[in-house]
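note to self: dont lose this again. the chain is below, predicted strucutre after it. 183 aa total, dont forget to put it in the shared folder this time
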Amino acid sequence: MPIRRVWFLCRVALLATASATVVRAQQPAAEDQIIDTIRTLPQVGDGDRRRIQEWLDIQVGKVAGAPKEKRQDAAGVFRASLKSQFDNQADTPAFRSALRAQLAQSMATKVVDAKLDRWVGFALARTLVDFNGIESVPGFVAGLKSPEELIRYLSADGLAGLNASLPADKEKFEQAVAALRAA
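---
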């Protein structure tokens, strides 16, 4: 009889711990509040774009600030975090477009830096490929100039993924063609 009671108490404790962990994991992070009010807007203005950029800088900082041996894992968490934000059912098309554009801008400014950690660059490039939209072109063009081969490859892959929509935007198409020729 005492063994059954001990077994029962262990199961109860395990279930309580597991359910508390799930509840904690589903709660949004404090920095996510920066973009929560923007995601439902029918139009995203310049101030909203700055707030999205602030949020992205926090996310990139988490990857860059991770210890070297944990940066690969941090890059995966970055990608999952952005994907969950992008796939949120409350998002408007305007928010998704702005998030893509700001991610491309982050990539364009960061991947050309020779001192950039390869996992930070990978996180930006891989996530931009996941979001692949016409707004991503500036990030891909900058990625083609990166000193990291993997970032160049992902950038070329991202541009290839836009082959159906890219010719419709003549300016971005010419920008992409020029970058590919120079690469």
